[in-house]
Amino acid sequence: MAGLAGMRLGYAVAREDWIQRLTPFASGNSTIAGVNVLAKYAAVAALKEMGNAPAMRKRSTDLRKKTVAELEAWGYEVMPSDANYFMVEIGEDVELMAFEFEKRGVLVGRKFPPYDSWLRVSIGTADEMTQFVKAFKDILPQIKG
């Protein structure tokens, strides 16, 4: 919700045996010493803003629903999501299409095998989501109208 996923900053609270099972999947060093200083400052700033969490959650949910509805109306299948991102089936290799989005100033997620034709889209600001939908409609054909 705070947009820190790219910094690979997070935590897990679980029984010791579950933590041991999760450890092989941790990215980088899974101790606080392994977190870079920028991520630490960003986390502190995000924690100070948690009073705004309900409003941030609502804004993200509303933007996700609006964007998904536009893509579905354009004819595309969207994987159900309650997260800060969704995946849309574009019928093309995601890596190739990512370049087309980048040309239009939109960065999209990487390929998630075996879902090679499912584009991962993170929820941004209202302006960013409008720019994404415009780029999507410029790049991909309408399937049904």
Widest beta sheet: strand line-up = 1-2-3
The second-level CATH architecture of the largest domain is Alpha-Beta Complex
Determine the oligomeric state from the structure.
single chain
Q: How many separate helices?
A: 5
What distance separates the N and C termini?
Answer: 33 Å
CATH class of the largest domain: Alpha Beta
Shape: globular
Low-confidence stretches: none
- Report the CATH superfamily of the largest domain: Aspartate Aminotransferase, domain 1
Main sheet?
Answer: 3 strands, antiparallel
**Number of structural domains:** 2
- The chain-level mean pLDDT equals 87
User: How many β-strand stretches?
Assistant: 3
Radius of gyration from the alpha-carbon trace, in angstroms: 18 Å
| CATH topology title of the largest domain | Aspartate Aminotransferase, domain 1
Helix/strand order, N-terminal first: HHHEEHEH
Helix content: 40-55%
How much of the sequence is in beta strands?
5-15%
What layout of secondary structure does this protein have?
Elements: H1 16-22, H2 37-48, H3 53-73, E1 78-79, E2 85-89, H4 94-103, E3 118-122, H5 126-139
